[in-house]
Amino acid sequence: MDGEHDGGYGDRYAGYGGGWSVADGLRFAVRAFVYAVVGGAALIAIATVASVLGPTLALDLYTPAVAAWWTVFTAVVVQGVPFLLLGTVVSAAIGAFVPERVFTRLLPRNQALAVPIAGAAGVVLPGCECASVPVAGSLMRRGVAPAAALAFLLSAPAINPVVLVATSIAFPGQPRMVLGRLVASLVTAVVMGWLWARFGRDEWLRKPTSGSGPTQSSGWRGFSAGLQHDFLHAGGFLVLGAGAAATFNIVVPRSVLDVFTGSAWLAVPLLAVLAVVLCVCSEADAFVAASLSGFSPTARLAFMVVGPMVDLKLIALQAGTFGRSFALRFSSVTWVVALTSSVVVGWWLL
Q1: Global pTM value
Q2: What angle do CA 210, 213, 218 make, to 5 degrees?
Q3: What is the largest CA-CA distance in the chain?
Q4: What is the distance between the alpha carbons of residues 47 and 27, in angstroms, rounded to a whole number?
Q5: Dihedral, CA atoms, 317, 318, 323, 329, nearest 10 degrees?
Q6: How far apart are CA 223 and CA 55, in angstroms?
Q7: Model pLDDT for residues 291-303, shown as the tens digit of each residue
């Protein structure tokens, strides 16, 4: 009798979400919440302490450049952590609670049709590029075609309502700038999805699979394991990208950037490059672009279109999730397509 009882108890737990009691579900929900809050708070606390001690140490050592480095590094990390946490929560929830058949039913099997639908769906996720990478990886694990998942990855941080509202506030009385950002970003995402569907190779992309990684389990246990794995994994690459952006800010003199403000042809690619290295969150980049009043509207549009799709921390996140070979190829082509879209849309609207 005891053996039968033990067997039934084990089977009940083997089913994860389906056979658990309410108390089991609540326990894992609380545990996942604690991991998310404590982990995010720990990163923010570390960055905050570093921002306080870093400049102090820099002043003690008479190295103002180090103080500037700490300031930029902290700003990028603190900006990105909340949205990275949002992305990992969404990613873990998709992997643990959403059946694969949901995505296969929502998206057409034809990739040419699935790509624009997935790109337009990016409007529902109010996050930045830090959030889009783990979500795209989770979509691939659930059976979504890579081309559609990549279109979503690019569009989500660029066309969501938070970003568009922020852009309208940064550029008051300029609705064409908001429309230009929406159109150029969506076109870039869809074109990149189609390009990957046509020319992408399997060996370039390290696909997340349902049979590997912590999110293979369902229910609250799978959610908790996936959240821990994705947040710690992506958080490390966020820190790496923030360090690279901070280094660029103290190495390249401001006078070098001022040389290009007078040339319309040079200003656009310059701000497109600047967007890559500054790593400004998509919810805040419109205010940075608005402050660059010496540049043309098209150049500032390019800054806002390129930044959410190609920057140092995003490249690092992509490399950690999908492989370095993919990140280098995909980011390079995305930069060219985003720049071209910005120029065409800027010429048309601005």
Answers
A1: 0.69
A2: 60
A3: 86
A4: 30
A5: -140
A6: 39
A7: 777 788 999 999 9
